[in-house]
Automatic annotation (TrEMBL):
Family from the record: Belongs to the MurCDEF family.
Organism expressing this protein natively: Christiangramia lutea
Official protein name in the record: UDP-N-acetylmuramoylalanine--D-glutamate ligase
Binding site for ATP: 110-116
Any one biological process term the GO annotation gives: peptidoglycan biosynthetic process
Biochemical pathway: Cell wall biogenesis; peptidoglycan biosynthesis
Top class in the EC scheme: ligase
Record's catalysed reaction(s): UDP-N-acetyl-alpha-D-muramoyl-L-alanine + D-glutamate + ATP = UDP-N-acetyl-alpha-D-muramoyl-L-alanyl-D-glutamate + ADP + phosphate + H(+)
Entry keyword annotation includes Cell cycle: yes
HAMAP family assigned: MurD (MF_00639)
Domain Mur ligase central: 108-286
Molecular function terms from GO: ATP binding; UDP-N-acetylmuramoylalanine-D-glutamate ligase activity
Length: 445
């Protein structure tokens, strides 16, 4: 008697789950309320899976022993509520995948810096000769990784939505980069619900596991005071000296684990800026734990290429530098981007607002931004927040128009920065699509 799984959502995590479930003898039914993209439909046809799109056939879904819900579907969706009322377990793809893998996991979550830290760790492990596969919220889904590849370690970027659906998922090394208000629309607009969700990454850890986190982050520190964790803590900080963990001393990163010290001048890091010093600390802590040679850690931290759509320098035209930071989907990420600007900036911002509060950006905008280009369907809040402090605010409805407007407003020596602080779903498929359209529009100037 084969077990039945129903999969809600035909994106990356849905398809990965279908591949893994089929491989493990499940009877699979995949259902998507929207339209499934052609490349995913082809996979479903190829592995001969029963699927539907643009509807949910409830009788087939309720017949399942377990339901995997894609991270994009909120817990409040009527179908999900009904399933839970009927006692059908609803889990996330990372939970399902973890049932079929003994490979130890390095799991990275946080409001910002996740992708950079994940990519930096994968890069260091590769340079250090450790066999690892990277996936999760970046590249291949965890389920696809488990189904199709064999590695000694898995390096996973994990979102709070994926953590919401775990039961037994347990990373050997958990990393929490920071917590700033994001996605509050999915957490009843309560920051504490979002914080609790992020901390699920450590809930199944034991004393044999490790927890690496930002000790300067107030939300994290406050939570840890009230909610002790079982794993071994390895904090990192720019502000204080840490006994076991990472800190800053005389412009050097220092990672000290059980009296083994690694040091590296911040000037040699491939990625500059305070937030990147923290990202490097988190990654170097993992490398130290896995006993990668110090020289190799230094090399990997200094030759890392960075992440696409994250402060990515695109082109210089007429001595104006165009920077793609499309991955900045919340205010805090944009804060880091503006903080790192060293010349006058024309800033392209906007999209789907997740309950943004722009107050923290005001001093930076005042100091660095000469013009704002809104790129979204509804820009009222942006205009209300910054209308009085910049010379020009313009509204645009396409990337091409936004980039041409930036070209007109920028002068020699300026930066043009796409750092939207918002989700992209009003005008684009996702932040990658938004970033690629920006790069293409810049190249076509």
């Amino acid at each position: 008697m084969s077990r039945k799984i129903a999969i809600l959502g035909g994106g990356e995590s849905g398809i990965g789950t279908a591949i893994l479930a089929k491989k493990n003898g499940y009877e699979v039914f995949l259902s998507d309320k929207g339209k499934i993209r052609e490349k995913y439909r082809d996979v479903l046809e190829h592995i001969e899976i029963d699927w539907e799109d643009e509807k949910h056939t409830e009788s087939k879904i309720f017949d399942a022993d377990v339901v995997m819900k894609s991270p994009g579907i909120p817990d409040t969706a009527p179908l999900v509520k009904k399933l839970r009322e009927k006692g059908v377990p609803v889990i996330s793809e990372i939970e399902f995948a973890s049932w079929f893998s003994e490979t130890p996991v390095i799991g990275i979550t946080g409001s910002n810096g996740k992708t950079t830290v994940t990519s930096l760790i994968q890069h260091s492990l590769k340079e250090g000769g450790i066999d690892s596969g990277m996936g999760g919220n970046i590249g291949n889904s965890y389920a696809k990784l488990v189904a199709e590849e064999d590695h000694d370690w898995h390096v996973l970027e994990i979102s709070s939505f994926q953590l919401d659906g775990i039961v037994d998922f347990r990373p050997k090394i958990a990393i929490l980069t920071n917590i700033t208000p994001d996605h509050l629309d999915r957490y009843d607009y309560k920051l504490e619900n979002y914080i609790a969700s992020k901390f699920r990454i450590v809930e199944n850890q034991t004393r044999e596991d490790f927890f690496i986190y930002d000790a300067d982050d107030e939300n994290i520190s406050e939570w840890l005071k009230k909610n002790p964790v079982r794993s071994q803590k390895l904090p990192f900080s720019l502000e204080k000296k840490i006994e076991n963990g990472a800190y800053m001393e005389n412009e050097n990163i220092v990672v000290n684990i059980n009296n083994t010290k690694f040091t590296m001048p911040t000037s040699e890091l491939a990625l500059q800026g305070k937030h990147n010093a923290k990202n490097a600390m988190a990654a170097a802590t993992v490398s130290q734990l896995l006993r990668i040679r110090k020289q190799t850690i230094r090399e990997s931290m200094s030759n890392f290429q960075g992440v696409e759509h994250r402060l990515e320098k695109v082109l210089k035209i007429n001595n104006v530098l165009y920077i793609n930071d499309s991955k900045a989907t919340n205010v805090n990420a944009t804060f880091y981007a503006l903080e790192s600007m060293e010349s006058e900036t024309v800033w392209i911002i906007g999209g789907v607002d997740k309950g943004n509060v722009y107050d923290d950006l005001l001093p930076l905008v005042n100091e660095k931004v000469k013009a704002i280009i809104c790129l979204g369907v509804d820009n009222k809040k942006i205009k209300a927040s910054f209308g009085n402090i910049v010379e020009a605010i313009v509204e645009t409805t396409s990337m091409k128009e936004a980039v041409q407007m930036a070209y007109r407003l920028a002068e020699k020596g300026d930066n043009v920065l796409l750092s939207p602080a918002c989700a992209s779903f009003d005008l684009f498929e996702n932040y990658e699509d938004r970033g690629r359209q920006f790069k293409e529009a810049v190249r076509n100037l």
